Amino acid sequence: RRSITAVILGPPGGGKGTISKRLIKDFGFYHLSTGDMLREQVRVGSELGKAAKEHMAAGRLVPDSLITDIVLKTVADSTHEHILLDGFPRTVPQATALTDRGVAIGLALDLAVPFDEIVRRTSGRWVHLGSGRTYAYDF
Q1: How far from the centroid of its chain's Cα atoms is residue 14's Cα?
Q2: Measured over all CA atoms, what is the biggest interatomic distance in the chain, rounded to whole angstroms?
């Protein structure tokens, strides 16, 4: 039985990844990132992954319904006691879908970071295209 499902919210460069690593280490959360889930579904060639790939290849955002299906399937399949959702929900329909499908959020962390700090942090980043991982020059 799952005891805590948590969400971490904030802008790109807001520190979600850094704080997620601490929650994983200190409290045993299982980290579920929407970006990682999308890449995995595309990699394995699932029907959800194929649909997502079409949108990404065309430069479009992946629709809420598709992201929601991927996340909820992953959460439902998980046997971990504590889950940390990173990057989900981003929209009201995504949040509503969590509630409608019986996923109770026990903790929400909303990171408020000044815009100038976001620009500073993201300016010092690079992305490894092969893996999709992001690295910071100054960290």
Answers
A1: 13
A2: 42
Encoding tokens for residue 80? 């971990």
Distances 130 to 43, 67, 133 between C-alpha atoms, Å? 12, 22, 8
pLDDT in tens, 14-69: 888 888 989 999 999 999 988 888 888 889 999 989 999 999 889 888 899 999 98
Return the number of other C-beta atoms located less than 10 Å from residue 81's C-beta.
13
Tell me how far apart the alpha carbons of residues 8 and 80 are, in angstroms, rounded to a whole number: 17
pLDDT digits (tens, 9 = 90+) for 92-123: 999 999 889 888 899 999 999 898 988 887 77
What is the rounded (10 degree) CA torsion for 71, 77, 81, 87?
A: -10
Q: Is 104 helix (H, G, I), strand (E, B) or coil?
A: coil
Q: What pTM, to 2 d.p., does this model score?
A: 0.75
35 token code pair: 């970006």
